[in-house]
Write a structure and sequence with these properties.
The complex is a heterodimer of chains A (about 280) and B (about 260). Chain A is an all-alpha fold. Chain A has a single domain, classed as ABC transporter involved in vitamin B12 uptake, BtuC. Chain A is built from 13 helices and no strands. Chain A has helices spanning about 1-5, 10-35, 35-55, 60-80, 85-110, 115-120, 130-150, 150-160, 160-165, 170-190, 195-210, 215-240, 245-275. In chain A, helix 3 (about 35-55) packs antiparallel against helix 11. The longest helix of chain A has about 35 residues, at about 245-275. The termini of chain A are far apart. With about 260 residues, chain B is α/β, with parallel strands linked by helices. Chain B has a domain at about 5-85 and about 160-240: P-loop containing nucleotide triphosphate hydrolases (Rossmann fold). Chain B is built from 6 helices and 9 strands. Chain B has helices at about 45-50, 95-100, 115-125, 140-155, 170-185, 225-240, and strands at about 5-15, 20-30, 35, 60-65, 75-80, 160-165, 190-195, 205-210, 215-220. A 6-stranded mixed beta sheet of chain B has the order 5-6-7-3-8-9, with helices on both faces. Chain B has a 3-stranded antiparallel beta sheet with strand order 2-1-4, covered by helices on one side. In chain B, helix 3 (about 115-125) packs across helix 4. Classes of the chains: A mainly alpha (about 280), B alpha/beta (about 260). Chains A and B meet through helix 8, helix 9 and helix 12 of A and helix 2 of B.
Chain lengths: ~280, ~260
């Protein structure tokens, strides 16, 4: 393990994992409590169109993915505000069309020889230092925004109608949230790839929700869990020479099932207690 | 004549081309305790949301304190119909009540000491201060209802809207709940929607029946006869499927007091 840390790419990978985890914990929490997991998935997959576009036009990868992610997030926000009941269908369309555009654009790109798998399943071991700075910037921006609007985000997520009545700028915050989701997704694609984005965005908050009493605590615990999963996954992938993104997700999944099992066993205990004391039947 | 709190003039509302409310005229004076009754789907919630400024009328005007409702939302308290939303949400009772103290989105949204004092008072009034740190999902239906009332009261509203407030309170808790409303009504105008006629208790000062159209009964007292008639209202309406008058002779017999 220690000799691995001597390698720069391993240190970068760990740094990237921690940065992504912190942002994932914060944004993933808001995604889960606002029930927009599917939207986040749509944005992630549509980002593939951005990868295709970037290669086709000869732009840097980040420009294409960020642009397309923000664009698809904007379309989804507009649909949500205009016709909420049509959102899932629309997300499905954007999801598929984005990927299709990506594939076709890569077909049309002359001399294309990019490692496609690295975008689908992540390439955390190939994160350059410049990307780390980008991630740190996004991370600081996200944390600053969420801290600034914390109570408003809390009110919106819990009861948007009441929030509106209290003059919370719900529409603005919702668009802001989708924008941050788009940036986060671009960041996570680096680590676990676009196919596995939803897992890293949702599993830690989903576990954390059960053990925390406030949105803030849920964000912190999600970030910690996410760190734990990412670092453990990286270490296992290094030990057994496995694809890092998939290994990280499997570690998270193991954590998820452990917590689900714990949750399944816990209510039975309390149910037994109440059956003994209250329920005569 | 008491100052009007709510004025609705010739209000129509359609949703997806379907008329939900038509030709609604309503006048709620300060200090009123108005109960809006009517069958499910008759437009009670829509009526309330129009008064709250959460919906805008297709035609006609709604004024609260003489202004469009969304401009005076800081003077309005609202207890929504469904208090069981997001029961798994990681939020404490106190934090839910503090949401009622949020001020117009001026960024940096921190709660002040006054906010916490107000939240404590509201929770004490609802006898829930002891549960302040409990997670919202751990409360019973009746407690939850009181949390939402506390959230509505914490901003010191002059008018309180309750949508199906009795829905999650068991028979036992109701008497207690009426006492709370009675006490509140000393200072706060109350508008409560209910499909459950039991809310027509002695505290109620006027009744409106809404089923696409609205029939307002302006009366300082409610007789057993009116109660009986009102109680039959949704049954009849469902049976006939047409709007009709429920409260007998109120149409042109104004101000019988």
């Amino acid at each position: 393990m220690w000799e691995a840390l001597q390698l720069e790419f391993v240190r970068n990978a760990l740094m990237a994992g921690v940065l992504v985890s912190v942002v994932c914990g914060v944004i993933g929490t808001l995604v889960v409590v606002n029930r927009i997991v599917f939207l986040a998935g749509g944005i992630a997959h549509a980002a593939y169109g951005g990868i295709g576009l970037a290669f086709f036009m000869g732009w840097p990868y980040a420009v294409g993915t960020t642009g397309v992610s923000i664009l698809s997030a904007g379309v989804m926000a507009a649909v949500t505000l205009k016709a909420r009941h049509r959102v899932d269908a629309m997300v499905g369309v954007i999801w598929a069309v984005g990927m299709a555009i990506g594939v076709v654009l890569l077909d049309l790109t002359p001399g294309y020889n990019v490692d496609l798998m690295s975008y689908l399943f992540g390439s955390i071991l190939a994160v350059p230092v410049s990307d780390l700075w980008q991630m740190a910037a996004i991370g600081i921006a996200v944390i600053a925004i969420v801290t600034y609007y914390y109570n408003d985000f809390l009110a919106m997520s819990y009861d948007d109608e009441f929030a509106r009545l209290r003059n919370v700028p719900v529409t603005f915050l919702y668009c802001l949230l989708l924008g941050m989701v788009a940036l986060t997704v671009v960041m996570i694609i680096r680590v676990v790839g676009l196919i596995l984005v939803i897992a890293l965005l949702t599993i830690p908050p989903f576990i954390a929700e059960k053990f925390t009493g406030s949105l803030r605590a849920m964000m912190v615990l999600s970030s910690i869990l996410s760190c734990l999963f990412t670092i453990t996954g990286l270490w296992l992938s290094y030990l057994f020479n496995l694809t890092s993104g998939a290994t990280i997700i499997l570690v998270a999944a193991a954590g998820f099932f452990t917590s689900a099992l714990w949750d399944y066993l816990k209510p039975r205990r309390s149910a037994d207690q109440s059956a003994g004391t209250v329920n005569p039947a | 004549m008491p100052e009007p709190i709510i004025q609705m003039r010739d209000v129509w509302f359609s949703f997806n081309g379907q008329p939900v409310l038509q030709e609604v005229n309503l006048h709620v004076p300060r200090g009123d305790f108005l109960v809006v009754i009517g069958p499910n789907g008759g437009g009670k919630t829509t009526l309330l949301k129009l008064m709250l400024g959460l919906l805008y009328p297709t035609r006609g005007t709604v004024a609260v304190f003489g202004e469009p409702p969304h401009r005076v939302s800081h003077r309005i308290g609202y207890v929504p119909q469904n208090v069981h939303i997001n029961k798994d949400f990681p939020v404490s009772v106190l934090d839910v009540v503090l949401m009622g103290r949020l001020r117009t989105g001026r960024g940096w949204s921190r709660h002040t000491r006054q906010d916490r004092v107000a939240a404590q008072q509201a929770l004490e009034q609802m006898q829930l201060w002891g549960c302040r740190d409990r997670r919202i999902g751990k409360l019973s239906g009746g407690q939850l209802q009181r949390v939402f009332i506390a959230r509505a009261l914490v901003s010191g509203p002059e008018v309180l809207f309750l949508d199906e407030a009795m829905a999650s309170i068991d028979a036992q808790g109701r008497g207690e709940f009426y006492d709370i409303l009675k006490e509140l009504n000393r200072t706060v105008t109350i508008v409560a929607a209910s499909h459950d006629m039991m809310i027509l208790s002695r505290q109620v000062k006027s009744v409106a029946c809404v089923n696409r159209e609205l029939h307002h009964h302006d009366s300082g007292e409610i007789t057993q006869e009116m109660l009986d008639e009102a109680y039959h209202c949704p049954v009849d309406l469902v049976a006939h499927g047409i709007p009709h008058r429920v409260l007998g002779l109120h149409a042109d017999k104004k101000e019988d007091e």
